[in-house]
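Researcher: We plan to redesign the surface later, but first we want a full-length starting point. Tokens attached.
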């Protein structure tokens, strides 16, 4: 890890009292959940892919509607990540919130690990695997129920399809989350972006809301918005967050 950059990061955290963290799938890779765009991620080289179609297509509303059984096969094996534990980054963010420095975690993740680590104010831009709703009668189900179902998960009450409250490509983000996320970023004095390729819209556009905040980007690989960062750390975030003092 670049010590000089780490010290700069620690200083920025020490001098801030309204921090907002904005993260993506890279936050959970250290917990064992693959991301999309790392070398071993689901979007890796086409020849190495396990599935017939591209992940973007398999996670689209069209695919859900037209190939429901295959959609659930993919969702249950690749997206519905159960049994994983938070890592140092999740825990340090929860600690920063507890001491009053961090106001919110905005995440593109759907795995619920921030809450498991103790974070309270978590804005889930793309929903969560932990909420599942019957499309006919709105009965609620757990992620375990969906994951353990055979074939298409069906409602015990009415037989309707149970759809995870996860935003698929072509679908709108859950009501209000984007407005909330934009406001948090506008009010922040330090925004930390980590573990996201900043490729998925409208989440990636959130940084246009920066309103005088310092911006730190911690990512192993380049992002299209690196050029606007005040501090760019191209390292493993687990090393950075495990050393950071809250
Ligand atoms: P992405 O496009 O896969 O990007 C992840 C980024 O994180 C890449 O640029 C990596 O280089 C970087 N990265 C991975 N591990 C580390 C690490 N330890 N330290 C530093 N950088 C690292 O993922 P995005 O979140 O940008 O894409 C948005 C999608 C991914 C959302 O719709 C999510 O729902 C979806 N997703 C979520 C999960 C999850 O909930 N854990 C898993 C896989 C995909």
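Model: Full-length starting sequence:
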């Amino acid at each position: 890890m670049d010590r000089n950059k780490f010290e700069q990061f620690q200083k920025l955290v020490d001098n801030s009292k309204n921090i907002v963290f904005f993260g993506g799938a890279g936050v959970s890779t250290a917990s064992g959940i693959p991301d999309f765009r790392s070398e071993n991620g689901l979007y890796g080289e086409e020849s190495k892919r396990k599935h017939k179609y591209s992940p973007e297509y398999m996670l689209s509303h069209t695919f859900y509607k037209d190939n429901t059984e295959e959609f659930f096969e993919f969702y249950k094996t690749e997206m519905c990540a159960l049994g994983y534990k938070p890592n140092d980054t999740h825990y340090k963010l929860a600690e920063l919130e507890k001491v009053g420095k961090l106001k919110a975690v905005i995440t593109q993740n759907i795995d619920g690990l921030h809450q498991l680590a103790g974070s309270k104010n978590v804005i889930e831009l793309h929903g969560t695997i932990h909420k599942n709703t019957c499309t006919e009668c709105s009965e609620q189900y757990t992620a375990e129920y969906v994951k353990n179902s055979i074939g298409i998960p069906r409602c015990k009450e009415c037989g309707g399809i149970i759809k995870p409250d996860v935003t698929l490509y072509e679908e709108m983000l859950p009501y209000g989350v984007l407005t909330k996320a934009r406001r948090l970023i506008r009010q922040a004095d330090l925004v930390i972006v980590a573990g996201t390729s900043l490729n998925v819209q409208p989440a990636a556009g959130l940084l246009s809301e920066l309103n005088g905040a310092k911006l730190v980007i911690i990512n192993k690989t380049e992002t299209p918005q690196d050029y606007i960062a005040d501090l760019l750390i191209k390292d493993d975030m687990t090393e950075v967050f495990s050393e950071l003092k809250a």
